[in-house]
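Support request from a user on the community tier.

User writes: "When I paste my structure tokens into the form, the page sometimes reloads and wipes my input. The last time it worked, I copied everything first. Here is what I submitted, just in case something in the input itself triggers the reload:"
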């Protein structure tokens, strides 16, 4: 019998560190940055449970800053589950992925941001 606890919050924001170099390992050079963006989207879908994932322009520029061959090793991402404003949208929630600038990735954990 399943437990009936408090319902999951619709709108939630969390900070994650994504290790991009292991996700684009053994990928052809000319496909590394596009694959990194796709992997960020896949990670956000899995973590937040929404099909609709939108990448912020700042995060996209950070991934592409060093060129197509050499995306950054790690990236700190803020994933926010938000309500969809379109009435005719398939899903009522979407995920926005934004860059969180950090000086070092040492010792960072997944954090829930209270708004």
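"...and here is what came back when it finally went through:"
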């Amino acid at each position: 019998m399943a437990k009936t606890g408090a319902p999951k919050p619709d709108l939630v924001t969390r900070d994650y560190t994504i290790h991009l170099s292991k996700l684009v390992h053994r990928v052809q050079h000319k496909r590394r940055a596009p694959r990194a963006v796709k992997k960020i989207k896949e990670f956000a879908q899995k973590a937040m449970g929404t099909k609709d994932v939108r990448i912020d322009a700042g995060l996209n520029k950070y991934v592409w800053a060093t060129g197509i061959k050499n995306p950054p090793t790690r990236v700190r991402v803020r994933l926010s589950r938000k309500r969809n404003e379109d009435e005719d949208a398939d899903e009522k929630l979407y995920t926005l992925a934004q860059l969180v600038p950090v000086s070092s990735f040492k010792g960072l954990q997944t954090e829930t941001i209270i708004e």
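Agent notes: The reload is a front-end session timeout and is unrelated to the input. The radius of gyration is 16 Å. The CA atoms of residues 52 and 94 lie 5 Å apart. Escalated to web team.
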